[in-house]
Design a protein that fits this description.
The structure holds 2 protein chains of 2 kinds. Chain A is of the alpha/beta class. Chain A has a single domain, classed as Glutamate synthase, alpha subunit, C-terminal domain (Pectate Lyase C-like, 3 Solenoid). Chain A has an 11-stranded mixed sheet, sandwiched between helices. The model of chain A has no long low-confidence stretch (mean pLDDT about 95). Chain B is of the alpha+beta class. Chain B has a single domain, classed as 4-Layer Sandwich (Glutamine Phosphoribosylpyrophosphate, subunit 1, domain 1). Chain B contains 11 helices and 19 strands. A 7-stranded antiparallel sheet of chain B has the order 8-3-10-1-16-15-17. In chain B, strand 13 and strand 14 form a beta hairpin. Chain B is globular and about 60 Å long. Classes of the chains: A alpha/beta, B alpha+beta. At the A-B interface, loops of A face helix 11 and strand 17 of B.
Chain lengths: ~250, ~400
């Protein structure tokens, strides 16, 4: 049975203490009710616990965490999944700016739109490949300074009818990893030193593997999503600024 | 008065604002609850509130909120006001002893109208405009009377601010006793400038008030530019320039609100290069004429006036801003939680784009001395603008 915590008017320190106590007592499922703005929820927790969040969690949800499976039944604020290592964050709404900042592993699935600088400084190593899948649209600087991992931008569920799929300065400073776009963007949105091309069979297989899981989280039809034309963005070199200062 | 220099370099002020488009009054408790939901965004070195519609009994008078170090400074202000204004009423601003609030200056408010007689014209340089007269008077007090500062100077509105956390400042000024149709609030985490009573937000001139999260790197340029037009910065904090820029660009130069916002947070030249005419010329002109009014650096600001509330981000969105709507109520804050704390089920929640002004004006003829800076038509600009009322509502 799920362990329930009422977070109403409780400071984040106390909520996090209650979460850790519950885990110590063997809870595998925790439900957080009446969350509103508490920062750092589940930060640094190394445990494969499921945490359902009702309300609007505050900044840096799941920062540094290694293992938890967090489901947010609403929107999240900025910095969700900051430097997270393993586990998953599923957001049944919008997510704010800098989602997955310096993310090292695990998955973030967002049903709708995300803000600015999402996936900034993401990195990968060996079998640790962080993945962010966004159902809506993204603001400027998506995947800025990205060093590894994967971002998938679908644009199927957005409240911003008139905004482009991705904002300006897309992938600026990117030197590793890959960004997949479902649909096209104006070429001037793309950062310097990047290549934009249609996906191949290999990409299709990789994408499908991740999108199956995404579709399960939100009850979506996989076929409908992959029937559209996808593009991928990769850096032309892993050292784009190698010659900027040394010449 | 004491000036606290912060020893931490962490930036994270909190903002919150509420407006009702039909002029319905909102109790002080609500804005207090909203800003206190963002307690971690401040560090106790500053908090403040602006409230509109709080002095209906003197709605035709400019209300000067004066902060003073000493009785002497206050006396000098009073002598000046007696000489240059008709005064309908004056009183101490009610406060109560509050744990954690120490060394508070004196606060008094004066309800005045310009006096156009005899030698007084010398001070106001003969301007027939009451607003310009009041601006000159405020600048005179701030620059000439040692230890006295005008905290707000608009009609039917007032600013309340000081050193403390927002709950402490609200308690100190008894803000739960006020109701307003527009509220803004600030929770301060000073980084580059001192934490002192005058440096807390909001900053104001006439009925303009502004709260700000971020830093204005262009402060020096903006300040020198404003000095050419008679505005003098005396409050030791970057945000002060924004209040005066709003007054200069929007009230005095009569730029439509949308255009003024693009002067503060203009599109990149690379974006302007791609624009069709006549927009390209418009933006090029705005950047050329108002280059010194551009705000550089990260910011999210909320500013208000008698009749409107506007939210604006810097052009690469380096500070957060969330907007929500519930019926005729509009909310803006640094964090969504601050809105949901007082409006759990909004009709809509959205995040404005970088440089996209969110302009919420009241319906026409809702409040006394109402101002509108939309000038009727929507400018057909390719930069995003969110405004209420939209064009058709104005017919």
């Amino acid at each position: 049975m799920a362990f329930e915590i009422d977070a109403k008017d409780i400071h984040y320190r106390q909520v996090n203490e209650l979460i850790r106590e519950a885990i110590d007592q063997g809870a595998r499922e925790i439900v957080l009710k009446n969350v509103n703005g508490q920062r750092y929820l589940a930060a640094g927790i190394s445990s494969e616990v499921k945490i359902d969040v009702y309300g609007t969690p505050g900044l840096d949800l799941g920062a540094f965490m290694r293992g938890p499976n967090i489901v947010v039944h609403g929107n999240t604020q900025d910095g969700a999944g900051n430097t997270m290592d393993e586990g998953k964050i599923v957001v049944h709404g919008m997510a704010g700016d800098v989602v997955g900042y310096a993310m090292r592993g695990g998955k973030i699935h967002v049903a709708s739109d995300v803000g600015y600088r999402v996936g900034i400084h993401m990195k990968a190593y060996m079998d640790k490949v962080p993945v962010i899948i966004i159902g809506g649209k993204a603001g400027d600087f998506l995947g800025e300074y990205m060093a590894g991992g994967m971002i998938v931008l679908l644009g199927i569920n957005s409240r911003y009818e008139h905004r482009p799929l991705a904002g300006l300065f897309l992938g600026t400073g990117m030197h590793g990893g890959v960004i997949y776009l479902r649909g096209e963007i104006p070429s001037y949105h793309l950062g310097k030193g990047l290549s934009l091309e249609p996906i191949n069979k290999e990409d299709e297989a990789i994408l499908e593997g991740y999108l199956v899981d995404y579709c399960q989280d939100f009850g979506l039809d996989l076929q409908e999503i992959i029937d559209e034309k996808f593009f991928k963005i990769r850096p032309q070199t892993h050292r784009p600024y190698g010659k900027l200062y040394a010449y | 008065m004491d000036i606290f220099i912060p020893n931490k370099e962490i930036s994270g002020c909190g903002l919150s604002g509420i407006i009702n488009r039909q002029g319905e009054l909102v109790k002080g408790e609500l804005i207090i609850e909203s800003i206190c939901c963002q307690m971690e965004r401040g560090n106790g070195l500053g908090a403040g509130f602006a409230a509109y519609g709080i002095y209906p009994e003197f709605q035709e008078h400019y209300c000067l909120h004066i902060m003073a170090d000493s009785k002497k400074a206050l006396k000098e202000v009073e002598e000046l006001l007696n000489h240059h204004c008709y005064m309908a009423h004056q009183e101490e601003i009610p406060t109560r002893p509050t744990p954690g609030i120490s060394s508070a200056p004196r606060f008094r408010r004066y309800f005045v109208k310009p006096r156009y007689e005899g030698e007084v014209r010398d001070l106001c340089e003969g301007t027939p405009d009451e607003d310009d007269y009041m601006v000159n008077l405020v600048m005179h007090i701030n620059t000439h009377i040692d230890g006295a500062y005008v905290i707000s100077s608009g009609r039917n509105m007032g600013a309340f601010k000081g050193v403390g956390f927002p709950d402490q400042i609200a308690n100190f000024f008894r803000l739960e006793e006020y109701s307003a149709y527009i509220w803004t609030a600030h929770n301060r985490f000073p980084t580059n400038t001192p934490g002192w009573w005058g440096g807390a937000h909001p900053f104001t001139i006439l009925d303009w008030s502004i709260v700000h999260n971020g830093e204005i790197s262009s402060y020096g340029t903006n300040r020198r530019y404003l000095e050419m037009f008679g505005y003098h910065c005396t409050l030791l904090t970057d945000t002060e320039v924004v209040a005066y820029l709003l007054d200069l660009l929007i009230r005095r130069h009569r730029l439509p609100m949308e255009v003024a916002c693009t002067a503060l947070a203009p599109p990149f030249w690379s974006e302007i290069d791609l624009m069709p005419e006549p927009e390209k010329t418009l933006y090029t002109s705005v950047r050329a004429v108002y280059g010194a009014a551009m705000l550089n650096g990260p910011f999210a600001i909320l500013f208000a006036y008698n009749g409107g509330l506007v939210g604006l981000n810097d052009r690469v969105k380096l500070r957060p801003l969330v907007t929500a709507k519930k019926g005729e109520f509009y909310y803006m804050a640094s964090e969504e939680a601050a809105i949901r704390a007082i409006c759990p089920d909004p009709d809509e929640v959205w995040c404005p784009k970088a440089g996209e002004p969110v302009i919420i004006e009241m319906e026409p003829n809702t409040i006394p001395n109402q101002r509108s800076y939309l000038h009727g038509q929507i400018f057909d600009l390719s930069t995003p603008i969110c405004r209420f009322p939209a064009e058709e509502e104005e017919e």
